[in-house]
Each structure stands twice: as structure tokens, then as C-alpha cells.
Amino acid sequence: MKKIHNFSAGPSILPRIAIENTAKAILDFNGIGLSILEISHRSKDFQAVIDEAVALFKEQLGIPEGYQVLFLGGGASLQFCMIPYNLMNKKAAYVDSGVWAKKAIKEAKLFGEVNVIASSADKNYNFYPPITNIPTDVDYLHITTNNTIYGTEIFTDIDSPVPLVADMSSDIFSRPVDVSKYAMIYGGAQKNLGPAGATFVIVREDILGKVDRVLPSMLDYRVHIKEGSMYNTPPCLPIYTIMETLRWIKSLGGVKVLQEMNQKKAKLLYDTMDNSKIFVGTVEKDSRSLMNICFVMREGYQHLEDEFMNFSKANGMSGLKGHRSVGGFRASTYNALPYESVQALVDCMNEFEKSKV
Ligand SMILES: *Cc1c(COP(=O)(O)O)cnc(C)c1O
What span, in angstroms and rounded, lies between the C-alpha atoms of 342 and 325? Predict the structure, then answer.
């Protein structure tokens, strides 16, 4: 098989070992003679999987007492509505840092007043808007820590006088997080954790039960907590792969080690574009994401975009095409992407540049 370097933004690269062990569990799970696809989610074999996934989640992220970890369906996008449904009485504050943040804002407006306290929309989201003067008369503040499409990221766990809710779909487990600063952290699994189909929710229990409205069972976090993510059939197979990914994270030494690896990978690529005559990054330096690295061709070289895309493909690069709202290229450098893949991309960029300048 030809070596492919997978820079896909999501669903995206997973640790090879997690994929192999998932394949084994599909063929014969735990040596029980059945596939994980064909056993009850209430069987003891599956219960052990979800228990281990939750335990590793808590251990590897250092989640304090008082928080629950859930695995639900519906993607991060369903959380855009579940959050205001469960937490908003009258008003909430949102940071508008990109397309996903904007979608979260749109849903929240269905439930009450939304106060957008910071935005980088007028610069096509090419920086992370500074968060200052958080109002105290809101039910919560919502942020998106990594903007997958624009390649901006906030690395500090901010202090908030109101419950802080964060969409960490694309940077969960990429760095240590002080979970105690957040009331809730959530995301789709398909960027850094597992296949599409599972959504993780970390929620501090004391923020629930404070709204007046009546909640349908499936949209009520308290129901999912009470039932251990098994009010209905959970996404069993994605949860299995998440467990395997978390085992891999643990075996490497945890999120601190991953953070260092991610910093090295990102530095290699950002340094390359900073020193390039034909490539240039699209994001302001202090907002640069470690997970999604966006770049375009400099003025005067833009006609070479398609040619570079084809050249990179011929050299084994996959998933490099930038999102249509930014254009150019986006290299997603999630946890499972090896340094060698970034090196291969950088070699490819340098070789291409040499032939043009
Ligand atoms: C991918 C992504 C989403 C959307 O996730 P779905 O699971 O497809 O709903 C939301 N927020 C961020 C930051 C993302 O990267």
C-alpha cells in the first residue's frame, strides 16, 4: 500500500492501533465468538467498554469530582441546541470565533437573548477575538476553543464569573485542560478521538436543573447521567474506538506528551510557511492553531494553487484542501498524525517552491 499522509479535518486520522483493535473487535470481540456489532449494549462485555472509556476520559483529562462524562448521539451540532435548552433561562453570552461558533449562536437565539461579547467576523475570523468584560447577568458563556475551519485556537483556560461552556470538538486531548474552569466541555468525537457518531459531554452536575422549561427525555442531560449514557442505545462502536484511542493516549504518557508532539509538528509547518516565498499562513501568529494549519499562496503565486494541490497529491498528501470559506490549504495535524507526515508535507512544499522561484 502506498504511504498516504492524512491531513483530513474530520473525520480524520486515528491511531493505527485503535483502528486495528476496532477491526478485531468487529470480527471477534474479546474472544466471545461474536462481533461487537451484534451484542447488546447492556451486555457485560459492552458495559466494560463504556466504563473504561469514561474512566480513561476522566483520568487522562484530570476531570475533578462533580463532573459526569457522557457519550451521546447527534454530534456537536445537537449540543448547540441542548446547551441553551438545559442551561439558558433568559440570556447567554457567546464568542463568535468562526463558523461553528456562529451555528451555536443561531441555535441559542431560539431559546433567549444572545449577547455576542467578542467576534473576529470582520477579519474573516483570522484571529481569536480577545475575551474581556464577561457579563455577569448571563446564564453561561459559550466559547469554541479551536476553530477547525479557520485554524485559530485559544490556549488559556479563561476565568469566567459565569459557567463556562466550551466546544472542544477539534482540540480535546491535544493539551492539558484545567477542567475545573469549565462548567461543560463537549464535542464530536470524529476529530481527535474516534469515528463519527459519538459526541462527548463533560458536565458539572450542579449547573443542571436550573431552567423552568420542561425537557424532553432525550434532550435532558440529567436523564443521560442517570442512565449512564444508556437511556437509549448509545453509539457502541464509536465508543469502542474512543476507548482504544484513550488507551493509546495513556500509553504515550498522556496529554502533556501529546501537547509537546503537537507543538513540534505545528512549529515545523508554521516555520516553513514563514520562511517561504510562495506560501503564507492565513492566521495571526498568536492565534495559530496546533490542530488545523491554514495557508494559501502569496500574492503573485495564487495561480499555482491547483498545481501544488496536484503535486502534493502525487506525493501522498491527502485531505489538504482548505475549507471553502478560507480557500487554499488546511493541514489538520491532530494527535494521531505522525511528525513524519508533517515532514513529508514540508519537503513537498520546499521542493515545489524550488521549482518555481
Ligand atoms: C466538526 C465541528 C463541529 C460539528 O460537529 P458535528 O459532530 O458534525 O455536529 C462543531 N464544532 C467544531 C469546533 C467542529 O470542529
Answer: 24
- What residue type is assigned to position 55 of the chain? A
Whether the CB of 194 sits within 6 Å of ligand 1: no
All structural domains of the chain: 16-252 (3.40.640.10), 254-356 (3.90.1150.10)
Angle between helices 236-252 and 255-274 (to 10 degrees): 80
Q: What is the pTM of this model?
A: 0.98
Q: Is 191 a catalytic residue?
A: yes
Q: What distance in Å separates the CA atoms of residue 260 and residue 197, rounded to the nearest whole number? A: 29
- Nearest CA owner, ligand 1 atom 13: 169
Contact between 146 and 292 (Cβ < 8 Å): yes
CB distance 107 to ligand 1 below 6 Å = no
76 lines ligand 1 (CB under 6 A): yes
Strand pairing class (317-318; 5-6): parallel
Give the span between the Cα atoms of 193 and 17, in whole angstroms.
13
> Does any ligand 1 atom lie closer than 6 A to the CB of residue 167?
yes
Ligand 1 centre to CA of 291 (Å) is 14
In the chain the first and final C-alpha atoms are separated, in Å, by 33
pLDDT digits (tens, 9 = 90+) for 213-270: 999 999 999 999 999 999 999 999 999 999 999 999 999 999 999 999 999 999 999 9
Q: Which residues are CB-neighbours of 285 under 8 A, at least 6 positions away?
A: none
Annotation marks residue 100 as catalytic: yes
Q: What is the DSSP string of 131-162?
A: -----SSSS-EEEESEETTTTEE--S----SS
Tell me which residue has its CA closest to atom 8 in ligand 1: 75
